[in-house]
Structure formats: structure tokens, C-alpha cells
Amino acid sequence: MKKIIISICLFLSLSKIFAQDPIFTQYFMIPESFNSSFAGAKEGPKAGIIHRTQWPRLNFSINTQFAYVDNWFEDINSGLGISVLNHKETTTRYNFTQVNLNYALKFQINDDWFFRPSISLGYGNKSFGFQDLLLGDQINISNGVINPISIDPILLNEKINFFDISTSLLLNNERSWVGLTLKHLNRPNISMAFNDNNNLDMFLSIHSSIEFPLNTNFARMGNEDSLYLLTNFMHQGEYNRFDIGPQYVNGFLSFGLLAATNPIRTNPNSHFLTSLNAYVGLKYEGFKFGYSYDFSTSQIGRTGGVYEISISYEFDKNDNCFGCPNYY
């Protein structure tokens, strides 16, 4: 009985967490993870993957992966791509997988600026491993047997499937960009209980990368030498987050620091600054590598932090791509 109570309480306490979208610290390294308008944005085939591990020292640890591949099709002036997101919690064995088909269109506004609207159609699956959950009416003490069927109202689905619709916008020149993403426009039902409705909250993201060119010795040697201001405001239900920080880029090297904040505090006891996220990136030929580590500023304890590793590759690298957004 104790195991039953613990399992049910754990499910109820985590239900809100599992209704929130996974977020990557390195969203600017692989922007396809949060804005489908980047599909085909380099006007050539490209692919990438990012892995995130959160709180590895706790029993409640979370692993998330995102992978994509896309290409540009000149005849239709559009980018097409496919992406896969997987999110797993180790203790409860909760697992979320979603596959998306992404389509982006390119419009030229003037000599410098371009507009890229996009749509993303997804198919998601959530599972929780309730096969090990034993409910009270399944225990027949007098006969010493376990009934395979329960009529308990908390009876839950082991998995659910749903369709998802999202859209994104991107405004860019060759050095800076500003984007907007709205996910879950159809608000799919993600409840794992029979005859229940738990509609997924829409996810809003407003993000940007603004360049400030630097005149340094590295720049005079012919390398790219720029400072970027990165911002990303995210809102979903009661959850909100605003990331802001600098990114320094010099040719093959990139590094910086993001502050993750909680600007709209629904709980007065919550922290405004939740973590400081350091990252470094390397670029070689068509490859890009990234590593980041999030240092928690809250008093959650010794969690082991959060780290991410990313790698992407441009198969037909085009350094003179006209109107392509710049991201590293």
C-alpha cells in the first residue's frame, strides 16, 4: 500500500512538470529546436543533435534529446525538415517523444531584411510505465491473488498519442535575427487518465540574437570578431523564463554566459535568478560543437547541475549565403 500511495503522489506532483515543454540552454546553437523557421535557413542540407542531462546527482534526473535534418528547395523558395524530440525521467520512467514536420517560406523585405514564416505539424507520444502500479481493489487477500483488472477511478493509460500544431516567425538580416514561436495551437489533450481532459498550454517564445561588431586584433587578422546579445523570453501556463546574456564569436571559437531568470514570479518565494549558464562552441569546416553547464543559484541542493552537448553539420556549407540568418 505504501508503494501505491507513493506512486500516485509522485504522478500527481509531477503532472505539471511533464506538461511543460523541454527547454535547451543552447537554443542559439541549434535554433531549429525552438523555431521551425530555421528549417532550410542556411539554404543547404544540414543536420544536428543536442543532448541535455538535468540533475544527474538526484534520483529525479531528466534526459532530453533533440535531432533534426532539413534542406533548402530553391524551386519553391522554401525549407523543409523533420525533427525528433525525446524527453525521459529516470525514476518514474516517464517518456515523451514527438516527431515534427517543418515547413518554412522565405520573403525578402528590402535589401537587408528577410521574413520567414513557418508551420510545424507534430505527432506526440507520452508513456509513464503504470504497468507496475498496483491498486487496492486488485488485491484479493482472502484468496492471496492479484486481480489483473481494477475499477478504481484513478486507473490510468500507460500511453497516449496526440497531434500538435505550431507556428514560428523569423525576421533577419545576415548578422542579426528576431523570432517568435507559438507551440500547441490546437492545445492537445495530454491527460493520462480515462475520460479526462488536460489540454497542453500554448508555449510562447520571443527570441533574438543582435550583433555588435568588434574592431580588435583578431578582426584585423581576417577572423570574425563580434559580440552578440542573446535573449529568449518563454511563457507556458504559470511558467515563465527569460534568458539573457552575451556571446563572443571569433572565427572558430564562441563562448559566453546566460542568466536564466524568472521575471514574473507567481510564487513570492521563488528566485528571480535561477541559474547562470556558461557555454563554449567550436566550429571546424561544416561542423559545430557546443558544451554548456548550468550553475543553479537556487537552494535546491547538490543536483549535479545541468549540462548539454550539441553537434551539427552543414553538408554543403555556403559562406556566401544571401539573406541567411547568422547563428553559431
Please outline what is shown here.
This protein has helices spanning 2-14, 217-220; strands at residues 46-54, 62-73, 78-89, 95-105, 107-108, 114-127, 139-140, 145-146, 159-172, 177-183, 203-213, 225-236, 239-250, 253-261, 273-284, 287-296, 306-314. By secondary structure, the protein is mainly β.
Specify the overall morphology.
globular
What is the SS-derived class? mainly beta
Strand arrangement within the widest β-sheet reads 1-2-3-4-6-9-10-11-12-13-14-15-16-17
- Tell me the fraction of residues in β-strands, as a range: over 45%
Q: Average pLDDT value?
A: 83
- Kindly state the number of beta strands: 17
Give a structural overview.
With 328 residues, the chain is mainly beta. It is built from two helices and 17 strands. The strands form two sheets. Strands 1-2-3-4-6-9-10-11-12-13-14-15-16-17 form a 14-stranded antiparallel beta barrel. A two-stranded antiparallel ribbon has the order 7-8. It is globular. The N and C termini lie far apart (53 Å). The model is unreliable at 1-17 (pLDDT under 50).
